[in-house]
Amino acid sequence: MNTPDLFASAPDPAANLLPFDGIVNDYGAVFAPDEADGLLRYLLDEIPWRHDEAVIYGRRIVTARQVAWYGDAAFDYRYSGATRTALPWTDALLAIKARVEAAIAPISPTRFNSCLLNLYTDGTQGMAWHSDDEAELGPQTVIASLSLGATRKFALRHRRSGEKRALLLQHGQLIVMRGATQTHWQHALMKSARVHAPRVNLTFRTFRSLSPSS
Ligand SMILES: O=C(O)CCC(=O)C(=O)O
Ligand SMILES: [Fe+2]
Fold first, then answer.
1. CB 127 less than 6 A from any atom of ligand 1
2. Domain for residue 211, yes or no?
3. Beta carbons within 10 angstroms of residue 16's beta carbon
4. Closest approach atom of ligand 1 to CA 152
5. Any idea where the Fe2OG dioxygenase domain is (predicted)?
6. Confidence check: pLDDT of 214 > 50
7. 34-88 tens-digit pLDDT
């Protein structure tokens, strides 16, 4: 019988963590701890982190978590009432992107053209239930999510049935959401009073049409 530890360190990336209406694959840690340490330090120091803005029920709010957005071109992206312009890739981010694309290539070969980075300073910061279902991503989009830093609980909830799944995302761990996941499931990064260290999350995405900014 598998111990929980054994399972966590060697997941089967071909297994689907969702029971229906979507696919989530867990690749486990794709970066060794010391390599992940170096990446986390680089990202904390070098990324121009900014609080995100959104318009919710007509009110402008500033999020506690901080974000940065990178892409192939300086294209504009509108969501939640705000427009964002992508920053050009850094060499380090391109190297991370190449590693992520190589890791998932046997199961879901994908060429990503953008990356949204999130910084959660501690467990008081999270991300509310949402789907990444913007039209520019398409209905069967592949999103690869790399976690660095503090272990945090990531949860998925089926829109209609309310069925839930959750996993603890660890330092260096990679998961992929694909298939119809964004149509039928929401996901969230849960808050936790017990977490006092930062976590950085990189979500690699593919936009169908990049509209160049003027
Ligand atoms: O931090 C995470 O693991 C989730 C991030 C997320 O859902 C997003 O950026 O859309
Ligand atoms: Fe998301």
1. yes
2. no
3. 15
4. 3
5. 111-208
6. no
7. 999 999 999 999 999 999 887 778 888 888 999 999 999 767 776 666 777 889 9
Q: Looking at the domain assignment, is residue 13 inside a domain?
A: no
Q: Using one digit for the tens of pLDDT, what is the confidence trace for 171-208? A: 999 999 999 999 999 999 999 999 999 999 999 999 88
Counted domains in the chain: 1
Q: 134: domain CATH number? A: 2.60.120.590
| 212 assigned to some structural domain | no
- Going from the Cα of 154 to the center of ligand 1, the distance in angstroms, rounded, reads 8
- Decide the pairing of beta strands 87-88 and 59-71: parallel
Q: How far apart are CA 169 and CA 190, in angstroms?
A: 11
pTM: 0.91
Atom 1, ligand 1: which residue's CA is nearest?
A: 201
- 8 A C-beta contact, residue 180 and residue 17: no
Q: Which of 26, 5, 49 is nearest to 199 (CA)?
A: 49
| Any atom of ligand 1 within 6 Å of the Cβ of 201 | yes
User: Which protein residue has the closest C-alpha to ligand 1 atom 10?
Assistant: 132
**pLDDT reported for residue 213:** 46
| Ligand 1 site, residue 65, Cβ cutoff 6 A | no
Decide whether any atom of ligand 1 lies within 6 Å of the 116 Cβ: yes
- Nearest CA residue ID for atom 8, ligand 1: 203
CA distance 112 to 75: 14
Domain assignment of residue 1, yes or no: no
Both tokens of 204, joined, read 């690699």
Any ligand 1 atom below 6 A from CB of 145 = yes
